[in-house]
Amino acid sequence: MINREWHLLGRPVGWPKPEDFALVETEVPQPGEGQVLVRNEYLSVDPYMRGRMALSESYVEPYELDRPMQGGAVGRIVASRAEGFAEGDYVLHFFGWREYATFDAKTAVKVDPHAAPLSTYLGVLGMPGLTAYAGLTRVAEFKAGDVVFVSGAAGAVGSEVGQIAKLKGAARVIGSAGSDEKVKLLVEEYGFDAAFNYKNGRVRDQLKEAAPDGIDVYFDNVGGDHLEAAIAAMNLHGRIVVCGMISQYNATEPTPAPRNLSQIIAKRFRMEGMLVGDHYDLQPKFVEEVSAWVRAGELKYHETTTEGIESAVDAFLGMLRGENVGKMLIKLPE
User: Fold this and answer.
1) What structural domains and CATH numbers belong to the chain?
2) pLDDT tens track for 50-83
3) d(Cα 330, Cα 316) in Å, to the nearest integer?
């Protein structure tokens, strides 16, 4: 059988280009002892992948050139030589960006396609969901009555942060997004108290209007002018969770730090970066609580799905441009 997989050909400078990638045909590798062969059905597209394309020091190894790229995926086992894993089982794993993947079964997690749609294990009930849950409840130490501001609020993480905050008793939740349509979605479907299009004016001015009494928690997915605006609006002893800074991922020159960072002294706010890998001990509690909200219709989610392995790079570039609503996914034909 023929497998198709995406390789990184060169390290992008600035915005990645289609010619930085190649779709390569290989033979499907058969599983060895303790391994499984999986036919992927959904591939995850995430902002952190941009960082792995560079050689800069980070929390995860960079992608190797001329080698298969990696990413979250969910698929069906078509051959197994691992105890406890059988043909027909569905698993969540980290060998995406390819049609077939062969890997050690100990790195896979079984998922139930009858308990929830397969795609949700990469989104609302997957890594982005746990990021939102852990970032808000543990890192931000959210408490009922807080005023919460979320940037990139229409994305897979941000939309869940805002809804969880509302469900847990936030006094007010404000979100920013990059289009009027997304702003409408945040307010009318996700239940945010206020939202604004950051392209329609200065973020600082729009945030001040949406949160006249200041904010207690800022969940940062964007960085740049959003972080500076949040610091300006921060109340005494507020908390900032730095989850991502997508506004800077493709910068070719050093970007200025927030010009008002010195306010951390007077306001005594706390700013902390987060990686979801530090919080997998919360997974059982997260799945139990969030899946109940999803089943009850209290927590809503959107997915933007492209079709076929050929669409992976376009989906990735579209996500960087903010074209997705909710989780960005690639669906492979069965």
Assistant:
1) 2-123+301-331 (3.90.180.10), 127-277 (3.40.50.720)
2) 989 998 777 788 999 999 999 999 999 999 999 9
3) 10
